[in-house]
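Quiz preparation item.
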């Protein structure tokens, strides 16, 4: 009987780790919140005279949590379960964004921007 190489055992460990840590609904919602709050923080850092800053709703200039609730109510989030990861699509007034959920975390790389 052939012995499996170390590489195969590492691959098995990685696959098992991804499967065991696939994000659940709470993890996806927390990832969406983190992503949106990051976008809000970045937009608030713009110069007040910047035209993009003027697009921020009034509630967003005072309180980031209020801004998140406004933005989240305008978004549609869909989740597609795959074997090892979760694909998350966020659709809102600013456009569509796709993210990958793995290891209890949501990753939203720029190359997945729609």
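Solution:
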């Amino acid at each position: 009987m052939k012995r499996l190489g170390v590489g195969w055992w590492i691959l098995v460990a990685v696959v098992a780790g991804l499967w065991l840590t696939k994000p659940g609904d709470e993890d996806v919602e927390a990832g969406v919140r983190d992503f949106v709050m990051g976008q809000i923080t970045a937009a608030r850092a713009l110069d007040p005279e910047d035209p993009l800053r003027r697009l921020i709703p009034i509630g967003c200039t005072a309180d980031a949590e209020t801004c998140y609730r406004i933005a989240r109510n305008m978004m549609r989030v869909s989740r597609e379960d795959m074997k090892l990861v979760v694909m998350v699509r966020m659709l809102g007034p600013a456009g569509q964004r796709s993210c990958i959920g793995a290891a209890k975390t949501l990753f939203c790389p720029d190359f997945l921007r729609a």
